[in-house]
Each structure stands twice: as C-alpha cells, then as structure tokens.
Amino acid sequence: MSEIDVRQASHPEAVRYYDTEELRRHFLVESVFVPGEIALTYSHVDRFVLGGAMPTGAALKLETSKPIGQKTFLAKRELAAINIGGQGRVTVDGRAFDLAARDSLYVGMGAAEVAFESLDPAAPAKLYLLSAPAHATHPTRKVALSEARMVPLGSEASANKRVIHQIIHPDILPTCQLVAGMTLFSPGSVWNTMPCHTHDRRSEAYLYFDLPQDQRVFHMMGEPDETRHLVVANEQAILSPGWSIHAGVGTASYGFIWAMAGDNQDFTDMDMVSMSDLR
94-153: per-residue pLDDT in tens? Predict the structure, then answer.
C-alpha cells in the first residue's frame, strides 16, 4: 500500500482566496486508482478516508499506517468497497466476496485482514474504498446495485433526470457513520445535485466515473455566496466539507459515487440553497 496522502481541514474564509492550484491540492484527489496499488487519502474532516484498490497481480492487503493510529486498519474503523471495474474479490478474515461491476461490500469494525484481488488481472477490478471511524461492529455484507434503495429525481427539462441508488444506507444495512451510494443519469442529463445544498453536520466525497477520457465534469463548490469550481477528469474524487455546496455538470454522460460521514446518517438532512442566493 502506498503512503496515505493526508489533507488538513480548510476554513471557508481561507478558501475564498485559494487559486486553482490551491483548490485542487486541498479538495481534488487526482489519482484514485493506481495499477497494482492501494492508494488512499486521509481527510481531517470527519477523519474520512477514501481511495482505490486496483489489483493487477497478487492480492493487495489493506495495511495500517501512522495516520490510522491502530495496529490494524479496521481496529476502530468501518469500510465500504464499491467496484467500478472488472470482476473483483475481497477477502475479509478468510471469507471471500466476489464483486461484479457496481457491487459493493460493507466491512465492519474489527476485521483484522482485508485483501483485494482481480479475478482477471487483464481486466482489473477498481475497488473504490471509503472508511470512517466506528464505535461498534456491524456485520460484513455484500450489496448488489439491484438491492439499493432507488430514489428518482430531476427531469429531462432541467437536464438532471437521475436515479440515486442508496447502497450503504440505514434502510439497507446498519453502519456507524458511513452512508454511500451511486447516482446514474438518464440519457441527455448531465447536472447533478442542483438545486444545491449544504449539510454542515456531515462531510461528503464524490467520485466521478464512466466519463470519457477526453471529457470533464465541472464540480461546483464553496460557500453559496462564494462559489468556486474544479475541473474533474474520469475517476477523480472530490473532498467536500460540510460548509460547501456540491454540485456539477458534465460535458458528457457520467456517473458518480457519493459518500458521507459525520454527526448523523439522515440523507434528508440538508440546508437547501435557493438558486437566487448563489454567487
């Protein structure tokens, strides 16, 4: 496993003065999937960890490191792995779970050994990893996309007709903090999470995927009256603090995985922002 990239929390009054390079350095994760490695980013906002495992040969073992501060990675954490690549396998304390594309696995606190494999190294799995501090142990469970709670939103007229698939969610399985899911669009729709909102009680992370390599997503962030944007390529992720809006528009079709941690797991706990208040 490569060294964990550590990101400090940023005050919104400071972010107002960040240039493009600073915004990207603090909030954009450019290399989520690195062939043959586990690449992780540790955010001091809610102690959230995200990253990717992309096995191309031998199994990749999830190991602890200094920022984790425990003898094993999941001694005091929970984990979700969402596959957006080829057929993969996650082994948890000797128990194997095969994950097809868009399958997910929740791993409870206390698991001692976690390893990631590709069933066909020529078409490697891309396991998107999400982890937050935990206070209790919940059962490890695989969740197929078809088992998700589906929430249709938006319309063709506003180019944001989409279905939110709530996967790691209290209605599906118990977790301590983690809430995560996948948003998929109808043909011709490219806007996500608009009208936008904030939720100061929970941070969020976005992974954009299924975006053609020569296309981009313009991710909107910042305070509602001090908005900024980041230009995001395929399979790059955004760290979104609770005070920031989080929305985006693509130059082509795409999907994204959202994940949250914080004070509650209430998906509807949002502070909506009127379009007339955006600046």
Answer: 999 999 999 999 999 999 999 999 999 999 999 999 999 999 999 999 999 999 999 999
Residue numbering of the annotated binding site: 197, 199, 204, 246
Q: What is the pLDDT of residues 82-96, one digit of tens each?
A: 999 999 999 999 999
How many C-beta neighbours within 10 Å does residue 68 have? 20
Strand partners, 231: 218
Yes or no: say if 77 and 131 are a contact pair by the CB < 8 Å rule: yes
DSSP state of 15: H
Dihedral of CA atoms 40, 44, 46, 49 in degrees, nearest 10, equals 0
Residue numbers belonging to the annotated binding site for Zn(2+): 197, 199, 204, 246
CA angle (178 as vertex; 172, 184 as ends), nearest 5:
65
Domains and CATH numbers, the chain: 5-277 (2.60.120.10)
Reported pTM = 0.96
